[in-house]
């Protein structure tokens, strides 16, 4: 008898940002980044009230065509990751809400998600992706730099923006080229 050691594959596809699975991913994302913020600054985790306030203050409802796009990453068919793209102008999109559930980090989901982000950004007509993040989100920052993002000057004044990254997209290479 032969046992298969093949791990389930990641699949990433556009999803409706208002779906229950998207809402669950976005809530988990906010809990993760909020808890890290409060642990770092106040030595505590977020309260349920703070999570609800954060979801209301930073809505994701613009991550729909034509103003954006929401991607869901699935591992073994289960939603485990997400990323959003927000159109800033005719040639630039902003990457936001990048999240991989902690229990599946290190399984290739971040890399698959970032490849899908590039493809989706091109599909939106973008030649450039920008993002902002916090300095304490070291894993996210490492993911971005591994996938070609470099630090750029500040392009916004978000309350949690501490470092900004950008990536120039190259044209997709045609199959068989």
TrEMBL record:
Q: Which InterPro entries match?
A: Acyl_CoA_acyltransferase, Bact_Acetyltransf, GNAT_dom
Q: Which Gene3D superfamilies match?
A: 3.40.630.30
- Organism whose genome encodes this protein: Kitasatospora indigofera
Where do the N-acetyltransferase domain residues begin and end? Answer: 24-170
Protein name, please? N-acetyltransferase
Q: Which UniProt keywords apply?
A: Acyltransferase, Transferase
GO-annotated molecular function: acyltransferase activity, transferring groups other than amino-acyl groups
**Transmembrane annotation, as ranges:** none
């Amino acid at each position: 008898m032969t046992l298969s050691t093949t791990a389930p594959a990641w699949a990433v596809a556009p999803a409706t940002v208002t779906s229950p699975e998207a809402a669950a991913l976005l809530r988990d994302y906010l809990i993760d980044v909020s808890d890290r913020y409060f642990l770092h600054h106040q030595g505590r985790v977020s309260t349920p009230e703070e999570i609800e306030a954060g979801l209301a203050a930073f809505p994701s409802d613009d991550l729909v065509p034509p103003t954006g796009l929401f991607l869901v990453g699935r591992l073994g068919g289960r939603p485990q990751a997400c990323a959003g793209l927000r159109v800033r102008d005719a040639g630039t999109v902003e990457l936001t809400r990048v999240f991989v559930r902690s229990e599946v980090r290190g399984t290739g989901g971040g890399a698959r998600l970032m490849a899908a982000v590039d493809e989706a950004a091109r599909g939106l007509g973008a030649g450039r992706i920008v993002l902002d993040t916090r300095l304490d989100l070291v894993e996210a920052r490492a993911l971005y730099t591994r996938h070609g993002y470099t630090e750029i000057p500040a392009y916004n004044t978000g309350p949690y923006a501490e470092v900004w990254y950008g990536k120039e997209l190259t044209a997709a290479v045609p199959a068989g080229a």
